Structures are given as structure tokens and as C-alpha cells.
């Protein structure tokens, strides 16, 4: 966030609801302590529900509590002249501290992402994949790596998948898709322009859409799976973000494979074919 979080909370106290004010006051009273709390622990300390914590974070501009903690951690560190080099990791951290924080960030991304996606939405996503004639998986930057990984997995089980390469070529490929096909769009923020254009085109032409990440525009894609990561703009790369995205795509693949009736034979055939070139 470009504006100091602590300053914004102080300025906005008067306009907050009872629950929001309770949360803000706990954060302002002990920001360093809040950084070490889980959303459940903070909810208990504020005497509010966990959903109130999530709604509060979103109201002040963060996708969830982990992201708010990262911003809060960065601000408390600034007063100590420590440079934040990645989400929650600072220039004066020891090797052990870096390892602990990085792994904690990845574990948090997995845990929070799992909580954010109900079984019904996952089931709908797998049904889309299973029923699609062709699938185009579109991601830009780090999300393109996730798209390519999912593409290679689905291709092993006979799905006709297009992924990777220039995003403009991908958009051109999408123009030939129809109602029996599927667009899988991947964008953590939901603001990637190429992804927005692809989703808008698909919706206008009745091509089913499965979106992985946030999506703030209307109309909303048929199925949206959330990714939650402890990262903000102060980061060296989207490590936790990619962890969350890969967790979702790996889960979709395993659930898709679970529905196949000849899993053992397909795996055996795949291994046998690879052995022929050794």
C-alpha cells in the first residue's frame, strides 16, 4: 500500500463500525504483536468473528489477513531501519530466520488457500475441465509458469490443452474456441490486462471460464478459485503467490485424475513409453 497503514487506521477510526473499530484499536495498540497472531487469535482478542477480520482486511485494501500482516511488519521494521527484501524477510535476518519465515509464508499460503475454496467450487471446476473439448490456459509472468505446468499434467491424460508462448498468440487461439471448450485464466490480482481481455471475450462468446485468483470485474466468471498469499508489493518475486497457485492447479489435476476410470493403465502406459527411449 502506498499510504502508511497505521496512519490510515488512526485517521479512519471515527468512521468505523463497532467491530472494525475493535480490530483497528488492537492493531494500533500492539502492531508488532499482531504480526505474530493468526486470524483466529486476533478475532479472539478483538471479541469478533474470524469473518470480521477478513472483511476488515479487505475494507482497508488487502486480500486477507496474511497480506495485512506483511504490510504491518514492513512498517514496524522501517522504524528500526531494516530493509524488507521479501515478504516478512528483512536485510538483517539470520539464515535461520529467513528459512523459518519463508517456509512459514508458504505454509500459510497453502492453509489459507485451502480455507478460501469450498468443495462445491472445486467440484464445479473439475467438472468444467472434465467436460471441455479443448482447454486454453492463460497466465502472464509467473502465472505463465503455473499455466504451463497444469497444461503438461492435463495433456498426459488426453486433454487437448493450449498454454504457454506469447499471450497475444494465446488470445488469437481463444478466438477459435466455443461453448464446448474452456478458458482457464490465472492471475493472482485479477488485474492482468491480457487475462481481463480473455475473460471478457470468453464471456461475450459463451465460452466457459475457470479463473484462478482474484477477480473484481463484473460479470464474474462461472467458477473462481481463490489464492491467498503473504505477499504485497515489497517482494523479490511471487514465491508464496506461486505456491498458492500451484496448490490449486495440483489439486484440480488430482481431482480430475480421480474421476478417470483407467488411471492405473494410463500411468503404466506413460511410464512404459518413456522407458523405450532409455
Q: What does this entry look like structurally?
A:
With 278 residues, the chain is of the alpha/beta class. It folds into 2 domains: 5-93, Winged helix-like DNA-binding domain superfamily/Winged helix DNA-binding domain (Arc Repressor Mutant, subunit A), CATH 1.10.10; 119-264, Rossmann fold (3-Layer(aba) Sandwich). The protein has helices at residues 5-12, 18-29, 31-35, 39-46, 50-59, 65-78, 95-116, 119-131, 142-155, 167-174, 193-204, 239-258, 263-275, and strands at residues 84-86, 89-90, 134-139, 160-163, 182-186, 209-212, 223-225. The protein has a 5-stranded parallel β-sheet with strand order 4-3-5-6-7, sandwiched between helices. Helix 10 (167-174) runs parallel beside helix 11 (193-204). 36% of the residues are buried.
Q: What is the residue-averaged pLDDT?
A: 86
Query: What is the strand arrangement across the widest sheet?
Result: 4-3-5-6-7
CATH class of the largest domain: Alpha Beta
- The CATH topology name of the largest domain reads Rossmann fold
Distance between the termini: 53 Å
Low-pLDDT stretches: 232-236
Oligomeric status:
single chain
Shape: globular
Count of extended strands: 7
Number of helices: 13
Radius of gyration: 21 Å
Which percent range fits the helix content? 55-70%
β-strand percent reads: 5-15%
Please state the second-level CATH architecture of the largest domain: 3-Layer(aba) Sandwich
